[in-house]
Structures are given as C-alpha cells and as structure tokens.
Design a protein that fits this description.
The protein contains 11 helices and 10 strands. It has a single domain, classed as 2-enoyl-CoA Hydratase, Chain A, domain 1 (Alpha-Beta Complex).
Length: 199
C-alpha cells in the first residue's frame, strides 16, 4: 500500500490505498518511516494515489488498537525533517489528521487546487504529534495554528497558500516537484546538504 519509485536520485513514495482515501494503517506508517529513514537519494517526494492525499489514521485500526498513539507517527515526521536532501509533499488532494505530520516536516508543499487541510485533534480528543504544533506554527503563525488545531477548521488550498502552509498550487504537483528539484539533482550531495543546513 506504499509504492516506492526510484528514478535516478529521486525517491517517490506514494500512498496507494485510494479506495480508503489513503488512510494510514500501522503497516503503512511503519513502511513509510522505514523507507524515509533508509533513503539516500537527494530528492524525496511524498504523494498519494487517487483524489485524496490521506484521510489520516485508519479509523478501524484506531478503534481496534493503539494506532493513534503509535510512536511511528513521530518517527516518520522526524525522518522526513531529517532527510538530507530536498523533501517535497506533492499533494494530490486533501490532507487530514495524522497525515499532516509528514507534510509539515517536508521542505516544500505543493497542492492541487481542490485540496483541503484538516487536523481534528480537538474534536477527536487526541493530542497532535509532538513536533507538529511547532512546525505548523513556524509556517503559519501561532494564531492560525490554533485555528487549525484548536478550532478544527478545514483550510482550503487558497487559504493554505495565503497562510504559508503550502508553497504553490498546481494541477500536477509531482511534475512540479520534479521541476523544482532540477537544481538539487545537478548539484553535489554535500552542496545540497550544506545549503539546507544553512537555511
């Protein structure tokens, strides 16, 4: 349910469970975290199959076990944040719940015009992943972070772009991610890492 495509120095990980809105199971979450931790490419692209990037945690598994509290959520976000090259969330649709963690940890976020952003931790009675509030606040500011996390608001693509939550709205985010990554792929690995570290 996670498809990995390696093309040169680009690793594309696709959430491939469109019939369930790419809701993340424990196995999917662990597979993603393992793949990002092991990645040695210069560019990482995260995307989804179908019309939704991810609905977050699989609610059946949440009800049946400990998925909501799994340490793999934070392990995945930490791995994305620590990725040595350029990481891009190429959002083919809406992002909800725990799936926001890996998106917030990416260097860049590109989305289709119809995407929405929703993190209903207040309504569901869960705390967000440990690193998410600070990453969200760094992108959109404290008040807008509270609007999303405490007010439970669904943010449209246009609002997300205006807030600074996304960097570009485009019809083909994976293609746009590859275009943006061209200079990274033409540079040396140490140069890429050095500039990312300086930023």
């Amino acid at each position: 349910m996670i498809e990995a495509d390696r093309a040169g120095d680009v690793l594309t990980l696709t959430l491939a469970r469109p019939e369930k809105a790419n809701a993340l199971t424990e196995d999917m979450l662990a597979t993603l975290a393992d793949a990002v931790e092991a990645a040695r490419e210069r560019v990482l692209i995260l995307t989804g199959a179908g019309k939704v990037f991810s609905a977050g945690a699989d609610l059946d598994e949440v009800a049946a076990g400990s998925l909501a509290l799994s340490p793999d959520w934070d392990r995945l976000s930490g791995a994305v944040a620590g990725f040595r090259g350029l990481s891009v969330a190429a959002l083919n649709g809406t992002v909800a719940g725990g799936a926001m963690g890996m998106v917030l940890a990416c260097d860049l976020r590109l989305c289709v015009p119809g995407a929405k952003f929703f993190y209903p931790v207040m309504k569901l009675g869960h705390l967000p992943q440990p690193g998410d509030p600070a990453r969200l606040s760094a992108l959109v500011g404290p008040a807008r972070a509270k609007l999303i996390l405490m007010g439970g608001q669904k943010i449209t693509a246009d609002e997300a772009r205006a807030f600074g939550l996304t960097d570009r709205i485009c019809d083909a985010p994976v293609d746009a991610a590859r275009d943006i990554a061209a200079d990274v792929l033409a540079a040396g690995v140490d140069h890429v890492t050095a500039i990312k570290g300086m930023i």
